[in-house]
Task: structure prediction
Amino acid sequence: MVATDRFVNSGRHRIPVRNIWLLLLYASDLFRQLDRSQRSGVEENPDDIPDLIAEILTRAVERRLARNLSLGWRTRREDLNRVRGRVDLLRTESRWLLERGKVACRLDELTIDTPRNRLVRAALARLATIGGRRTLVSRCRSLAARLERLGVGIEKPPRTEVSVDTFGRLDVNDRLMVATARLAFDLALPNEEQGAIDFNVPDREIVWLRNLFERAVAGFYDVVLSPEGWRVDHGKRLDWPQSDATKGIEAILPSMKTDIVLEHSSLGRRLVIDTKFNSILTPGQFGKDSLRSGYMYQIYAYLRTQVHEDDPLSGRAAGLLLHPSVGRKVDEAVKIQGHAIRFATVNLAATAGEIRRQLLAMVAPHPEYA
Result:
């Protein structure tokens, strides 16, 4: 499947769709469950991501079917001649059911038609329309039909309904299956029709792309750096070093929440990362480009407010403001009160391998500090 001539345009950013797929994969739960060879394969060729998703999902569904799909509880309401389950007194009285020898009941029953299983069936049906490898398309259609025969509905559940779905000890094996099904709908997957490829690109709003960029960077570092002894925190809240606070200040004091914090105790490293999705430079006075002062104040506050005597890493923690590049590469750094603060860009129009190398290079100190 080739997607080299498809781009997502947002503001001044022009990103190949294949790299949007890569960012979505980095941001997903599925990326955390791929083995090293699978991760390496899709990073070398992001065009294979849709086929990889179809392969993983069909395997996961086949394994679950061999052991029986997970069931869930569903509440059914019915007017019966005898009491079963719980009595709905309001409905019974308001509809005069007792006069007809009936009672309104609410019954909790086990069902295979759960939001989780409906999501999986809908994802299989979606993947079957992509036009990838014929064997995968056939497997997706066959499994979707099999789920239908078992009683799983075709309607895709709302994202909110699936997001609150939790995994217990007995259904933990569903985690991979559900993560893959979710990603199938998150991706800008193509539909092939008469040889033409029509891309249904996700929401191109800058907010969506900014959040995706942040989650992708966090997911990438979590998977790649955690095995190397790094701790990766995403969305960590920081406390202000307060004193003499007035009674109403808590209600109006803005909170501080970092995008990503990387820490390696043995190496004595802590890196606070703030991701942005706009140009790293802005026109300043006299027509000269300059860094955005508001972002500098923000990363400075993240670093300096957390300095404590009982936290050895806090006094030398480093900061990184990371932007996508907009026609110009930037990688500069400065030390302010002992904190190395780096201002850098990553080229999202580059190859997947180059994006990976750029992200890994940001973790090391700036080359001029080495």
The chain has three domains: 7-70+114-199, 72-111, 206-244+253-369.
